[in-house]
Design a protein that fits this description.
Radius of gyration: 24 Å
Strand content: 5-15%
Protein name: C2H2-type domain-containing protein
Number of domains: 2
Largest sheet: 3 strands, mixed
GO molecular function: zinc ion binding
Keywords: Metal-binding, Zinc, Zinc-finger
Number of strands: 11
CATH architecture of the largest domain: 2-Layer Sandwich
CATH topology of the largest domain: Herpes Virus-1
InterPro entries: C1-like_sf (IPR046349), TFIIH_C1-like_dom (IPR004595), TFIIH_SSL1/p44 (IPR012170), Znf_C2H2_type (IPR013087), Znf_RING/FYVE/PHD (IPR013083)
Strand order of the largest sheet: 1-8-7
Bound molecules: zinc ion
Helix content: 25-40%
CATH class of the largest domain: Alpha Beta
Distance between the termini: 38 Å
GO biological process, one term: nucleotide-excision repair
CATH superfamily of the largest domain: Zinc/RING finger domain, C3HC4 (zinc finger)
Length: 205
């Protein structure tokens, strides 16, 4: 279990290229047709297609109009997978996981001028004086040589590459393990934050 977690934390899903026909063929097997059935309310009970029970109301298959009582289900008539759109929204993050945020070196923190976490607004440690001058690059090289804890950001900042916002470690953990969304990307109207795009107001990058 621990190995899987570690593996997932350092990998990003492969990019699907619509132009790559061979990849498309391979992916076709993994694609799943899904229907979003409409909920109906009936005055008189009718037979459901799944159990043959008399039920009042249910869901109509979006393809063949067979009635099923519960969702999610596979349509007993046409084999279409029927789910509520909220079910899909809930599992959406498994399809497009939030990309890991990158550690922010002091030089980048200075460039960005971030003073607080974009997520929780808690103050981030100020950029040390030696990085505050024009010689920031040289000092940055020096600091890269000094050993620091693996996976820890020297500036305690973690940056989303999609929107460029910087966060504290707590928000990094929460966003990736609980929310599966980046507050920065969300606030810019980008769905998910995993797909990249990176179109937003120019932030002087
Ligand atoms: Zn039924
Ligand atoms: Zn059907
Ligand atoms: Zn935070
Ligand atoms: Zn983001």
């Amino acid at each position: 279990v621990d190995y899987r977690q570690q593996l997932m934390s350092i990998t990003t899903p492969p990019v699907l290229r619509a132009t790559d026909t061979e990849a498309q063929k391979q992916n076709q097997a993994a694609l799943l047709m899904m229907g979003f059935p409409s909920r109906i309310v009936e005055e008189k009970p009718t037979l459901c297609a799944c159990h043959g029970n008399l039920t009042r109301g249910g869901y109509l298959c979006s393809r063949c109009k067979a009635k099923v009582c519960n969702l999610p289900a596979t349509c007993p008539t046409c084999d279409l997978t029927l789910i509520l759109s909220t079910h899909l929204a809930r599992s959406y993050h498994h399809l497009f996981p939030l990309r890991n945020w990158i550690e922010v070196p002091w030089s980048r923190a200075r460039q960005k001028g971030s003073t607080q976490c974009f997520g929780c607004l808690s103050p981030l440690p100020a950029v040390p004086a030696q990085y505050d001058g024009v010689n920031g690059v040289e000092h940055d090289r020096a600091s890269a040589r000094t050993k620091r804890a693996e996976g820890a950001s020297e500036s305690s900042r973690y940056e989303c590459e999609a929107c460029g916002e910087q966060f504290c470690i707590d928000c990094d953990v929460t966003c990736h393990e609980v929310l599966h969304n980046c507050p920065g990307c969300q606030s810019r109207g980008q769905v998910g934050g995993g797909g990249g795009g990176g179109e937003g107001p120019a932030d002087g990058g």
